[in-house]
Hints:
single chain, mainly alpha, 2 helices, elongated
Amino acid sequence: xxxxxxxxxxxxxxxxxxxxxxxxxxxxxxxxxxxxxxxxxxxxxxxxxxxxxxxx
Length: 56
């Protein structure tokens, strides 16, 4: 029992030390799939996309 407690204590301590750091990576990445939309439509209709949307 003492070894089991020591094992979990070590796991807990290492988990805290390698926890969340300050990173600039995005928290969530969303992939959008539009059925029957060809890739060349992105360049063909680029002037119609808004600055906060696909143009980013």
